[in-house]
Amino acid sequence: MRQGRSRHRFVLARSNELAAGISIIQAPIARAGLPIFPAKPAPSVAGGGFKVDIIARFPFSLNPMLVFRGVPERATTSTVLTIGNFDGVHLGHRALLAELKARARDLALPATVLTFEPHPRELFAPQQAPARLASLRDKLELLAECGVDRVHVCRFNHKLAALSAVQFVEQILLGGLGVRHLIIGDDFRFGKGRGGDFALLQQQGQAHGFAVEAMHTVDFGGLRVSSSAVREALALGNIEHAEELLGRAFVIAGRVMDGRKIGRTIGFPTANIQVRRQRLPLSGVFAVTVSGVDARPLPGAANIGVRPTLAEGLKPVLEVHLLDFDRDIYGKHVDVNFMHKLRAEAKFASLDELKAQISRDVADVREFFYRRGAEAQR
């Protein structure tokens, strides 16, 4: 399994869509910031204007992935389309996206993804919403790696949720996205009250002239690959199984921020990674590697949690002690690749007890990477 992800350059693209009133804007920095310069809004089906960001699929790519914020009232091109949240972009998603690209090549049309922000459950039942496996920014990068041509990030709000299944097809799929071929997961539901399904899409496709294809379930070891299965593996501390389902290491990305420097005072300086997610899919102490600091990923010991030894009620943070490393990396954007869980987070009676445990954790991390290296050489 590979670690980390390709880093993408953000470029300014030119397109004949400018003539259609769609503003194309530049997102000029690497993956961790994704700032949005103001773009001239155009009409959008879901409201809130229509903007476009550009993400290069690979450095210096001449065919960058276009990221549209919203769905226009009138499509400017036909599309081969799939719809979903794509949280984590796991092996099941990747199989679907490979099929999407193949159909798009056959029809000489852009491979297009429609996804939603926020997750529908974050709107209707925020306390019950699942922990995200990837931020929106990270999801877009993963989709770009899979070779997607276009992504429409549609704001999921009460107005969109009120559309009936037929209205969703007519206004979003046909009117806004010009769908010619639609590929969906076998459990896809849509429209008000989740009233739309594959059978309804087939009826609408026959009536309006677009093809509909259901993607088969992808299994691993006899179990269905899904975002829920990845979350369950992470919550149980089975990092290796989560990696198998994802087809890569589980990653949390962020900027290295200034912290309280408590780790430095006890001999274990840490990089404090900014975590924007309200809920995290895992907690505890882990063996990790960190990409984005050196030419190669660096090994480290990470704690992700609420640091109960320091105080009660703290927000979750991600701290990484890099082995045999003492450079200033504040402000860098890094990927923390989770490799193995060592233990659960614990509360200690004193900083001395915490220091002693961290020393044992670091020794365990060294042993983990030593064994891993020895196995790789066999």
Characteristics:
378 residues, alpha/beta, Rossmann fold, Elongation Factor Tu (Ef-tu), domain 3, 2 domains, seven-stranded mixed sheet, six-stranded antiparallel barrel, 23% strand, elongated
What is this structure, in a nutshell?
With 378 residues, the protein is an alpha/beta fold. It contains ten helices and 15 strands. The protein has helices at residues 91-107, 120-124, 136-145, 158-161, 165-176, 198-208, 227-235, 239-246, 262-265, 351-376; strands at 51-55, 65-69, 79-83, 111-117, 150-155, 179-185, 211-215, 219-220, 223-224, 250-257, 271-273, 284-291, 298-305, 317-322, 333-343.
Quaternary arrangement of the chains shown? single chain
From the alpha carbons, calculate the radius of gyration and give it in angstroms: 22 Å
Q: Would you list the SSEs in sequence order as H and E?
A: EEEHEHHEHHEHEEEHHEHEEEEEH
In CATH, the architecture of the largest domain is 3-Layer(aba) Sandwich
Unreliable stretches: 6-41
How much β-strand is present in the residues? 15-25%
Secondary-structure content class: alpha/beta
Shape type: elongated
- Within the CATH hierarchy, at the fold level, what is the topology of the largest domain? Rossmann fold
Mean pLDDT: 82
Q: Strand order, main sheet: write it out.
A: 1-2-5-4-3-6-7
**Helical content class:** 25-40%
Q: How many structural domains are formed by the residues?
A: 2
Describe the main β-sheet briefly: 7 strands, mixed
CATH top level of the largest domain is Alpha Beta
Number of strands: 15
Helical element count?
10
Distance between the termini: 17 Å
For this structure, what is the CATH homologous superfamily of the largest domain?
HUPs
